[in-house]
Design brief:
The structure is a homodimer.
Chain A lengths: L17 E2 H8 L3 H9 L15 E2 L1 H15 L5 H20 L9 H54 L11
Antiparallel strand pairs in A: 1-2
Chain B binds a DNA duplex through helix 2.
DNA sequence: ATTACCGTTGACGTGAACGGAAACCAATCT
DNA sequence: AGATTGGTTTCCGTTCACGTCAACGGTAAT
């Protein structure tokens, strides 16, 4: 019981909100990491329901996943990630601030900034894909050389093996 | 003069050998990094000509580039890289040790180990390529959504713009 | 011979990205 | 009521991958 539901806390959109432990499990991170990311300004949970308990929205969870990918797949530092998400953030902030207010004459500019940022990101990704592709080709080439060397070795061994039995066996 | 050439030092294959500074410049690393990598067992320069001066072969330079790619493109730690290069290393060591000696019956095994290691590496690379590809697709989708939103916004603005000037000025 | 340059070996410092423990709330289970 | 669970802040510790500095040595040119 103790129906603590329906608290209009910061904003009462009925999105399910995650506690930090749930968030951690769903994203595969630790609570510590989530707090740290918040500390350096990468995350902004609804924070502090009643006591000081953080609550995360689904958007926040998406964001966490996004950050993780920028970190793991592109090898960006958290500072770089901060920059990458900057335009996206201002866009979101303005979007919330002007909820059905102005005709949004400059929101368009923000949006275009975000679009541009996204495109440079895609470009970085493409470069990386290319470089990794080249690297893979090199590895494949190495593999081919080694396999060629292997058949040579096998042949040499086969040539030398019959010595204890020089009469040759056709089968 | 002081023709210090032709010193049969460790082995006198006439490969050009690089000093640590040259190596650093060619690979874009620092001397410190090269020493550090040696310290943790990733590199093994011919070392110590006369005094304690390191000299690197071309093979070593290739190796450095390889390590850099494993580090940057795949995000492996130096410890992981150490593991990845392990089979390759033993192969090389055995290859040097048995220079035209045995018919190499078990060298084949080493070679096959190296081939296997290379294949798992290629697999890791492929997985990564796939994940990055998915990530890129997500980013592209985001971009599409934002662009769609943009045309909406432009339409809204165009609808609302005429209000301050209802009389319409064609010029 | 002096200077300049490049190298060497320690040893300690550093920034990034957290880990972990202490001391303390708040809700929940038994 | 007491214990458990899961959250909070604060602060210090840690790992990785080097950076940096001191003290020193060999080689080459001036």
């Amino acid at each position: 019981m103790t129906d603590t539901r329906a608290e209009p806390d910061t904003r009462a959109e009925d999105e399910p909100r995650l506690r930090i432990g749930e968030m951690a499990k769903e994203t595969g991170l630790t609570s510590r990491t989530l707090r740290y990311w918040e500390e350096i300004g990468l995350l902004r949970p609804v924070a502090h329901r009643g006591s000081g308990e953080r609550l995360y929205s689904l958007a926040e969870r998406e964001r966490v996943v996004h950050i993780r990918e920028l970190q793991d797949l592109l090898g960006l530092t958290l500072a770089e990630i901060h920059d990458v998400l900057a335009s996206e953030d201002t866009l979101e902030r303005v979007r919330r601030a002007t909820r059905a207010s102005a005709p949004t004459p400059k929101r368009l500019g923000l949006l275009e900034d975000a679009i541009a940022a996204n495109e440079t990101l895609v470009q970085r990704i493409n470069e990386r894909l290319e470089r990794i592709g080249e690297f893979r080709d090199q590895c494949l080439a190495r593999g081919d050389r080694m396999r060629a060397r292997r058949v040579d070795l096998e042949a040499e061994i086969a040539d030398q093996r019959p010595r204890p039995r020089p009469k040759g066996r056709p089968g």
